Amino acid sequence: ASRSPSGAPLLTPSQSLDGAGGRRSGYITIGYRGSYTIGREAQADAKFRRVARITVCGKTALAKEVFGETLNESRDPDRPPERYTARYYLKFNFLEQAFDRLSEAGFRMAACSSTGTCAFGPEQGGPADDKIWTSYTEYVFCRD
């Protein structure tokens, strides 16, 4: 088995830590910030911007199992497998892709939370008739 620079064993996506060959239960939270512009009188043509970064929170071993090489660990390298982190993010920007990987690994959505705020409007020097809104959304997935 290969090891990280700290000496901890590296896990492949198909490995688990319980030694019995079964999958570990646990939670993974997916989060992202978004923004959108709504024109005069909340027109139906709201303009959404792409998701800039999808963050991952959970035990390191579970995150590596589900996301493998698409997990960017640069903000929290060499994290022990049984420790939690909220500093990982994905190398892709498609929520559907993250949801598919979680589903394929046996996770189900347990909760969702979202918040939004008007960040920039005409009174703050923004576009004449538009208001720019920002949001933060989290999806909690669990596997029993």
Walk me through this protein's architecture.
With 144 residues, this protein is mainly beta. The chain has one domain. It is 12% helix and 39% strand. The protein has helices at 60-67, 95-104, and strands spanning 26-38, 47-48, 54-59, 71-72, 84-90, 108-120, 131-143. Strands 1, 2, 3, 4, 5, 6 and 7 form a seven-stranded antiparallel sheet that branches. 17% of the residues are buried. Mean pLDDT is 81; it is low at 11-21.
The low-confidence parts are 11-21
Question: What global shape is seen?
Answer: elongated
Mean pLDDT: 81
Structural class based on helices, strands and sheet pairing: mainly beta
Main location: membrane
Protein name: KCD12 protein
Domain KCTD8/12/16 H1: 26-143
Keywords: Cell membrane, Cell projection, Membrane, Phosphoprotein
Question: What labels describe this entry?
Answer:
144 residues, mainly beta, seven-stranded antiparallel β-sheet, 12% helix, elongated, phosphoprotein, KCD12 protein, H1_KCTD8_12_16, cell membrane, membrane
Task: Chart the SSEs and their pairings.
Layout lengths: L25 E13 L8 E2 L5 E6 H8 L3 E2 L11 E7 L4 H10 L3 E13 L10 E13 L1
Antiparallel strand pairs: 1-2, 1-3, 1-7, 3-5, 4-5, 6-7
Protein name: KCD12 protein
Subcellular location: Cell membrane; Cell projection, Neuron projection
Pfam families: H1_KCTD8_12_16 (PF23110)
What's the quick description here?
Helices cover 12% and strands 39% of the residues.
